Amino acid sequence: MFRFAVAIAAIFFSYQAHANVVLGLPTNGSVQIVGPFTTDPLWGPNPIYIQLFFSGGPDGPTPDNAWVGWRTFSNISTSQSSLTLVNCGSSFGGPCLSPWESNHGYLPVYAATNTLTTHSSVGLSLQEDRATYSVTYWGVPYSFSLAAELPDGFSVLAPGVPEPSTWAMMIIGLASICLLSRRRPQHLGI
C-alpha cells in the first residue's frame, strides 16, 4: 500500500512539474516567446501552440434604464499567423457571441517568428434607450485583459523600458558630450 501511495505521489508531482504556465500579456504592444523550441530533422522547425484568453468590457456601471451592449476585440499576430478574439456582453449579462467568435483560441508560434504583436480595441459600443429606442454611442473607458498559456519551459520576454532615472542619466550624459564637443581649445600666445 505504501508503494502505491508513493507511485501516485510521484505521478502527481511529475505532472505538476510539467504543467503549462499562464502568463499575462500586454493588450497593446509586443512580446517575445522564448524557450526550448525544437526542430525536426525531416519536417523542420516545430511550432508550439499557445492558448490565449481575452476579456474586455466597460469600466464602471452601465447607464440606468438603458440596454447597453459592447463588443471588444483583441488581435494577436506573428509574421506567419494571426488570431482575433472577441469578448462581448450587455447590461443584462447575456451572452452575445456568435458561433464564429470566441474569447479564447490557439496560435502556433515558431522559433524564427516568436514575436507576438497585440492590439485590443472596442468594436461596438451602443446604448439603446428603452423608452425612445434611440441608439447613441456610449463613451466610457474600457479595460482589457489578455493571457497566454505556454508549455513548460517557455516564458514571455517583454521589451525593456528604461526607468526615469536611466533616462535622466542618458540625457545628462548626452548634454555633457555636446557641451564638451562645442568647447574650443584655448590657444595661449607666447
From TrEMBL:
What region holds the Ice-binding protein C-terminal domain?
A: 161-184
Q: Which Pfam families match?
A: PEP-CTERM
Keywords assigned: Signal
**Classification via InterPro entries:** Ice-binding_C (IPR013424)
Kindly indicate where the leader peptide sits in this chain. 1-19
Give a yes or no for keyword Signal in this entry: yes
Stated name of the protein:
PEP-CTERM sorting domain-containing protein
Species name for this entry? Bradyrhizobium denitrificans
